[in-house]
Design brief:
The chain is α+β, with helices and mostly antiparallel strands. About 55% of the residues lie in helices and about 10% in strands. Strands 1, 2, 3, 5, 6 and 9 form a 6-stranded mixed β-sheet that branches. A 3-stranded antiparallel β-sheet has the order 4-8-7, with no helix packed on it. The chain has a two-stranded antiparallel sheet with strand order 10-11. The longest helix is centred in the middle third of the chain and has 38 residues, at about 340-375. The chain is globular and about 90 Å long. The structure holds ligand LB5YH26S and flavin-adenine dinucleotide. Flavin-adenine dinucleotide (FAD) binds next to strand 1 and helix 13.
């Protein structure tokens, strides 16, 4: 096969070079598909290259050796260096370029501006009026002020209706009084709140004349702009170390009858008049726009995280030689074992699938915002909420699973922080919790599915949106050998059957006298199953659409192999739903398994290039195991030698404690 990979380098590990030579496609072209455009893929490479020429932007030491205090300081140091070089490195108006630059330089550990960019500024854009834009948005974008998004409390994160922080309107002074009435009302978790931010979008229960109007967003100054000291009436601090994000300062926040002007209620959609008259928003949940935005971006972000871990595991698997196949005189690469391929290749397919699917949800979100801001049209909100609720849950769960498999696929070295996989894992699984706990969000999608089935049952199938139209389609047997569409049909059958079964079960409980809530809870596990199946179907469909649209033939062919693997792996994983009623035959089951094993063989020669196509630089990868050069053993030894524990041969802990113990034992 022609050699197309541009990135062969002299001096790289020969086993990796051999893998790169077998590639059937150009990794630069594949990167264009992964990042959505030729321009962004190219700009990522250019930015990484430019960053590598600014020594101050490099980590001063490998991050796993830093303690929490050092991580926070190191992150902030790099931010300030970045600030000086920003305009020369990127087009500051291009989000894709900015996202790449920050990932490259800052790593995964979190930093003071993460939530400012991801939630504070977007919350202002989505919720602030034109006058408020004038007052706050420019300052925020220029970073004269740094903000965070303070919603979750010690006692409540999921159930927003029970947030306890109050914002009580006082007509006489035209102010809101923010108050934290109990310990459980303390804001708890917001990123960059603890030590960095001097402003926050605070979500509090709006109270006018003793009546609660539910959670609303307010812009609140927390710290003095000159001294950075908390303002009187504000209690704020860091919540301590976490599984990951330890360069970030997730924080707590309490208010003691803290007054803010009436103009600080973010009032693009709802407002309070001077006399206390409340003006309702066009949609009850429109205040949640910053959350919907992050959820819409999560599938691509998480797909890249999975790609990051897999780059490490696949490269390492091509370098790690252990055990024999036929020839007992030569050990083989562990990547040649079918079990290793089965562990890693379906995860590569999922990483690609999640990224492609995420592009669609980002487009849907952008369209929704356009509709809302141009003509107040909120009709797309329910659909997007249901879709992104399911997607964030399914994707984060599988990404966590995939990264953990990547760790195990690296054997003992995967367990070392030299692999960096534990950090990636910690960051990724945070996504199972933030932006809506996964079970809670699956149940949100389930509400939508149940309503859709109820529409069909009441003869109103014509009111179903395109994404759930399959819930009304008549069943007919499919021949899987006819290609991707037949897999979609089989999956539709399975997903439809589960949505119907769960709905019928729920309705039956109610018929038998249970209240709606009790019936819902008794059906909840079945409902979450329906949500997962629906979401996996959607991911499958977007994957097919994206592969069909690719024009570069070698890239399309490599992607088709991945797609086929995905289709068979996904169907096999849920086959029991169709086997139990005989819709799928055991012959079809055998067919799927054989297709899957033959997909693994087809993908094998392209495996390294499929992950090389993510084009993570060594700096961004931050993994001794996964470096491009593949010199794993020398790199690992150098890394271990740099451990602070190895600065001296005899540690104080030995002289102070171990030695006396040993001496005592001798007596
Ligand atoms: C450029 C952007 C980049 C983003 C990158 C992200 C990718 C990351 C990947 C890796 C990189 C690492 C970088 C790290 C970045 C870190 C970011 C961390 C950010 C974390 C921030 C937070 O966590 S903020 C707090 C988030 N909190 C939540 O999500 C709370 C969850 N709870 C809820 O949302 C809601 O309470 C609920 C949905 C569970 C229920 O809502 P509620 O009680 O209000 O509703 P009801 O039960 O009354 O339902 C009534 C009705 O309304 C419907 N509904 C609810 N919500 C919505 C909505 N948002 N939109 C539309 N409709 C909604 C609900 O379904 C009901 O409908 P029915 O028709 O009656 O069924
Ligand atoms: C890394 C990270 C960053 C974060 N950043 C921010 C931030 O910037 N700003 C911010 O405001 N918040 C932030 N959060 C908080 C986060 O949004 C919440 O933790 C999250 O929404 C989950 O809420 P909870 O903690 O109340 O979980 P809980 O709701 O208490 O969940 C506990 C268990 O109860 C179950 N459960 C709860 N309700 C139901 C239900 N109705 N039905 C069935 N099961 C249920 C859940 O499934 C879960 O198993 C962050 C969290 C993390 C981990």
């Amino acid at each position: 096969m022609a050699f197309l990979n541009k990135e062969i380098r002299d001096g790289d590990n020969q086993d990796l070079t051999e893998e790169r030579r077998t590639a059937t496609f150009d990794t630069d072209k594949m990167a264009e598909v992964i990042y959505g455009s030729e321009k962004l893929a190219r700009r990522r490479r250019e930015i990484s290259h430019a960053v590598s020429r600014i020594p101050e932007l490099a980590d001063s030491r490998p991050l796993p050796f830093l303690d929490r205090f050092e991580k926070v300081t190191e992150g902030t140091r790099k931010l300030s260096v970045l600030d000086r070089h920003l305009a020369e490195l990127i087009d500051v108006n291009d989000n894709g370029e900015a996202l790449h630059l920050y990932h490259e330089v800052m790593g995964m550990e979190g930093h003071p501006l993460a939530l400012h960019e991801v939630m504070f500024v977007p919350a202002l854009i989505g919720q602030a009026s034109d006058e408020q834009y004038e007052k706050w948005l420019g300052r925020a974008k220029r970073r004269e002020i740094i903000g965070c998004y303070a919603q979750t409390e010690l006692g409540h994160g999921s159930n927003l209706r029970k947030l306890e922080t109050t914002a009580t309107y006082t007509p006489s002074t035209q102010e809101f009084i923010l108050h934290t009435p109990t310990i459980t009302a303390l804001k708890w978790w917001p990123g960059a709140l603890g030590k960095s931010s001097n402003y926050a979008v605070v979500v509090a229960d709006l109270i006018i004349k003793d009546k609660s109007y539910g959670p609303h967003p307010f812009i609140v100054q927390l710290r003095d702009e000159k001294t950075h000291q908390p303002l009187p009436g504000i209690t704020v601090g860091d919540i301590g170390p976490k599984m990951a994000f330890n360069g970030g300062d997730n924080g707590y926040l309490g208010f003691d009858n803290f007054r803010i002007p009436r103009e600080n209620l973010l009032n693009r959609h709802s407002r309070v008049e001077a006399d206390g008259t409340y003006v309702r928003p066009p949609h009850a949940k429109i205040g949640h726009s910053a959350m919907i935005r992050v959820r819409s971006h999560m599938a691509t972000g998480q797909g890249w995280l999975l790609g990051h871990a897999l780059t490490i595991a696949i490269r390492y698997s091509a370098v790690r030689i252990q055990g024999f196949l036929e020839d007992k005189s030569h050990e083989v690469k562990v990547l040649d074992y079918q079990t290793q391929q089965h562990r890693l290749f379906p995860a590569i397919a999922r990483a690609y699938a999640f990224i492609f699917c995420g592009f669609e949800t980002i487009r849907l979100y952008d369209q929704l915002i356009l509709d809302m801001n141009s003509n107040g049209n909120t009709s797309g909100m329910a659909d997007l909420h249901a879709l992104t609720s399911g997607l964030k849950s399914v994707v984060t769960h599988f990404v966590g699973q995939g990264i953990e498999q990547a760790r195990m696929a690296c054997g003992g070295h995967g367990y070392s922080m030299a692999s960096y996989i534990s950090e990636i894992y910690g960051v990724a699984i945070g996504g199972c919790t933030y932006e809506g706990e996964n079970m809670v969000m699956l149940l949100q999608l389930a509400r939508y599915l149940v309503k859709s089935v109820e529409l069909v049952k009441s003869g109103k199938a014509n009111q179903l949106g395109p994404m759930v139209a399959y819930l009304a389609v008549a069943d007919h047997k499919v021949n899987l050998a006819t290609g991707p569409d037949s897999y979609v049909k089989m999956f539709q059958y399975i997903s439809k059957r589960q949505s119907w079964k769960a709905t019928e079960k729920f309705l039956k409980f109610m018929e038998n006298g249970d209240s709606r809530d009790v019936a819902w809870n008794k059906t909840a596990v079945e409902l979450t199953r329906a949500s997962r199946l629906h979401t996996r179907l959607y991911i499958m469909e977007t994957f097919i659409r994206r592969v069909e649209s690719v024009t570069d033939i070698p890239v399309k062919s490599a992607l088709t192999d991945l797609l086929n693997l995905h289709l068979n792996y996904e169907l096999l994983d849920v086959a029991s739903y169709a086997l139990e009623d005989g819709f799928m035959s055991s012959n079809q089951m055998d067919f799927i398994k054989n297709q899957l094993y033959s997909s693994l063989e087809k993908i094998r020669p392209n495996a390294v290039s499929l992950v090389d196509s993510f084009q993570f630089s060594d700096m961004q990868l931050r993994s001794v195991l996964g470096r491009r050069d593949g010199h794993v053993y020398q790199n690992l030894f150098d890394w271990a030698k740099s451990s602070p524990l190895n600065k001296t041969d005899v540690l104080p802990s030995v002289t102070q404690y171990l030695k006396p113990m040993m001496e005592k034992a001798k007596l």
